[in-house]
Amino acid sequence: MAGSATAAKSKITLKGSAEIVAEFFDFGINRKEQKYGLTLWVSNDEQLTDYLKKINSYLKEWLVAKTIQKLVIVISSLDTQEVIERWQFDVVCDKTSDDDSKPKEKPLSQIQNEIKDVIRQIVATVTFLPLIESTCVFDLLIYTDKDLDTPENWEESGPRFVVNSQEVRLKSFNTLIHKVDAAVSYKLN
Amino acid sequence: VMAASLLDDAVTHRQDVQFESEKWDGETKAALVMNVIQLVLYHRHQIPSPIEILTREKSLLAASDEKSPNSKAGFKSQSAKRLMHLLESLDEINLNLISLFNSDIDLYEILIVLGSTVFSPKCAYCIHFDRSQHQIVLNLPFPKTQVISRQLMLKLATNDDFVACQSFPLTNLFLFIKLPRCSDISWFLPRQDFKLKSHVKPFTIDISLHPDLKRSQNKLSPADTLSDQDTDLIWFQAPISIKGYKDKV
After folding, report:
1. Which of A28, A92, A120, B150 has the greatest number of C-beta atoms within 10 Å?
2. Mean pLDDT, to the nearest integer, of B28-32?
3. Looking at the complex, does the CB of residue A31 fall below 8 Å from at least one CB of chain B?
4. Residue A12 vs residues A56, A104, A105, B30: alpha-carbon distances, Å
5. What is the ipTM for the molecules in this complex?
6. A40-89 pLDDT, tens per residue?
7. Are residues B240 and B89 in contact, defined by beta-carbon separation less than 8 angstroms?
8. From CA B148, how far away is CA B20, in angstroms rounded?
9. Model confidence over B112-160: pLDDT tens digits?
10. Minimal Cα distance from A169: which residue of B?
């Protein structure tokens, strides 16, 4: 029968929300780990892991500062530089939230279930995205508020859209402070 | 959990899929059925990753076995054995579906049932292929099976009702096909006693060909207007069920 117990509410602070969202972006690319009740592939390449750790620390900073608008992963051909796939994560921040704000109430389990659904859907895109047969590279693009200075080791970039593309909107998750929407664009064959 | 499962299936959900092709062959139809089975297994949490990824894992396991044949990793691990069994079962079903679709037997409906037994279903998925007879020829190029498959996968993977599923523990997947009773087939076994429980509303997938064919002079096969009883249709069941597995990391 349907349960009558109320799920325990979790108090979500700005920093806590930034941790949750940054952790979501941390999971991606060779080693298997269990997280969100899923088996996820995580990189075991040291250089790549170090690079992603640095990115993650910037992400947390921008999430707490509420200056991040989008995170984009561009996959392009090593030989031709043609953009083949483009993953866009739109981040909408509650600008009224700060360190002194009253924490939002939403069960952590609910947020994690939403994240799980997003990740499962991302993984399921392997069933319909065209196979990439050439060697590729990836670039990370971050869209931020205009008044943010370009950090060291970063440079300004164009949007790197896919030419002649199809876009598929995926699911989203919401911590009530940060909302993340996902979408993928890919080259139409 | 029981109430949530019933609510989940109380309303009929559907996905219509149309392909810009004027005909299809047995391999394509079988591939589409297998696509649905594979997506159901993944979205109902019966397998840890989509079949595409698991197939690549199988290659990695084979390579690992070659490098260290005496280790307990690779194909000797429990997960690996279950993975192999799963892929072999799917291959067997695929081969027999191709054989069936390439025969003259008129196939009315395909039913995928998840549950511990066929009489205790948790959910079901029904596939209909357009069986109407078309009078015009469009001379369209025949798209590759892979292209059609990916179009179907895209539709289903982005259908909120299809992906918004209650997960449940590992259970069995059964495959049924509805054929005339007198059909001359050997691998699928007649199940005259089978009827899907009424509280389970299957997610319905209607697959049809190019829309211009429907707008053309279009006659349904006379049998389509008759009931199961009139056309003496019964369910046939695949003799093997599919059982997924959980990854142990």
Report:
1. A120
2. 92
3. no
4. 20, 5, 6, 48
5. 0.80
6. 777 778 888 888 888 889 999 999 999 999 999 999 999 999 999 999 99
7. yes
8. 9
9. 999 999 999 999 999 998 876 655 666 666 677 888 888 899 999 888 8
10. B158
Q: Which amino acid is at B124?
A: A
Measured in degrees and rounded to the nearest 5, phi and psi for residue A125 equal -65, -20
Longest dimension (CA), chain A: 58
Burial class (CB in 10 A: 0-12, 13-18, 19+), A57: exposed
Backbone dihedral angles phi then psi of residue A70, each to the nearest 5 degrees:
-145, 150
The pTM assigned to this predicted structure is: 0.83
* Yes or no, beta carbons of B48 and A38 under 8 Å apart: yes
Evaluate whether A114 touches B163 at the Cβ level (below 8 Å).
Answer: no
B82 touches chain A (CB under 8 A): no
For residues A168 and A183, is the Cβ–Cβ distance under 8 A? Answer: yes
Nearest CA in chain B to A121: B157
